[in-house]
Write a structure and sequence with these properties.
Four copies of one chain form a homotetramer. The first copy, chain A, has about 140 residues and is α+β, with helices and mostly antiparallel strands. Chain A contains three helices and five strands; from the N terminus they run βααββββα. Chain A is globular and about 45 Å long. The two termini of chain A are about 20 Å apart. The mean pLDDT of chain A is about 95. The interface between A and D is medium-sized, with 26 and 26 residues.
């Protein structure tokens, strides 16, 4: 049995019926929207605004996602997305993000997100302040 | 019985299963994506690129949408979105957009889209070349 | 100047960055998702579950939407969707839904949603309990 | 250098501007919609309709996705999603799906999709006809 990582942030959501597909479950693509919104909200809570970074010429880029769909989310479900910073180097960062049903606390989805930042010069590299923030929250 | 407007452009689509909601029909919000993609593809066919306009500081803005949902689109449906330019002035434009099932040619959705352009000075106004293009295609 | 209707329900949201399009504003289609989630959450608060109705063979159907986009929502915005029941008969209902920025309380979007219910016999008709609930909340 | 798998199906798409996010690239979640639409269209081309299977009580379920984002898709891009059946057993199937820019033929995205089917008895198991179809197309 795998231990949970040391989460540093969490955000609650309610499933919207427009996110549920014809199979009666939240469509697999929608989870990536939940995960991104949680990452950006976490970053904003530390003073880092993805939109502002982009205006300065630094694009945050997801390079790889691994996601395990364990139990479906359905109409009416409330859930929480928890986030841990798993790794950060000068050229990439790794988040672990797990989704739990709020009522049952059952793990429904587990994801690993790898990303980097692209500065104006086009060569992947994590800006210093971004690196420091992630390093501080390292699980 | 209403006559069809003189369409100047049309674009075919296939429903994607991820666009069908828990009620077994294309979600009402998704039609607006079909309509926008058709408008932008029409504009591009006339040499006007919404993305390029935006880089020049001219934002294309939708100010009002009226949409009648007559028959639902479902999984597997092929359909065509037809477009007419209904009006254009120096400060706004109006598109009519109708969606037909490809097999039955039945009208499924009918929409009226009002928009404007916002130049860098922030006061709504249609750029000259954009005005000319729409005027040429006026129904 | 138009008076606000007597809202009977409201729901707060935060813009998700994945809902913001290349023009830096929430895409026009996304507002319909906010509006639907608010309607379904309102109905659930009165004991009516759209998903459950559908399992019983009653489909809730939107037949017309009119929406005015007055001010755009952007990355980071918090907003509230307010809802009023404007009309209900045996064959249709009308909701008014307005979106306000939370901080400025400025009206950003205003919509009128017309719908009906389709019972198993296929002829539009509002079920009694649904009619009573909407009638009780009539603005 | 990795060899390409033996693709058995491909489907062309055009990026819709509503799929492009505030960072000027197709949002990471949208790729999963492209991939699902390609899988369902492939299955339909072999006579298997995911919507019809679901009506018979067999749910197709994605259990894991690994996706590498190599180059972004942008406004106006045309691309093709290619698909290979990588493995199939009585309890799961694996698709490889790669996305290429149409003009440059450059590989932009590479994904591995693991799934299963849930019959009415709730215990994961691939129906015979589905197994045969995938086995026939095994790369």
């Amino acid at each position: 049995m795998k231990n949970s990582p040391a989460y540093c942030f969490e955000l609650e959501f309610a499933v919207r019926d427009s996110e549920v597909d014809m199979f009666g479950v939240v469509n697999n693509s929608v989870y990536l929207r939940y995960l991104e919104h949680t990452r950006h909200t976490f970053l904003k809570s530390t003073g880092i605004d993805a939109a502002h970074m982009q205006q300065l010429g630094f694009n945050l880029v997801v390079t790889r996602i691994e996601i395990d769909y364990k139990q479906p989310l359905r109409s009416g479900d409330l859930f929480v997305v928890k986030l841990a910073v798993s790794a950060v180097t000068r050229v990439r960062f790794v988040f672990l993000q797990d989704i739990y049903h709020l009522s049952s606390q059952q793990l429904t989805t587990s994801a690993r997100i790898v990303g980097t930042a692209i500065p104006p010069n086009g060569r992947p590299g994590i800006p210093d302040d971004f690196y420091q923030v992630l390093h501080t929250h390292l699980a």
